[in-house]
Amino acid sequence: MTESTHGHRVLLDAKASQSLDKMLNTLKQEGEFIRINPNKLVSWIVENFHVNRFSSTKAEIAKSHFNPRAYLLNVASKATNGDEAKALLTDALAKLQINKKKKTKTKGSDEKLAEDH
Known about the structure:
mainly alpha, elongated
């Protein structure tokens, strides 16, 4: 890890912040000569994740941050006539429903999947 810093500021949500605090406390408790601060730990985590895990989790990250509104607007802008628009939007809505079912099911709730129908 390089010592120079670049202009990224990262705001963590509550769960990520709690996790960061737990990791910092664990590291400090398990080794009396460990000197680390939140910035150094986050930098290490990001660099390590990029090298070791990013390629294998890109699709999962993209799926978690998919923007259905932007997707539908993009699909609608490609239509040249009414019939084509209807077909494109029907296909797009079907794809969104499939993604919604998969996303709900991956959270471990088959009951919630059934409620969507």
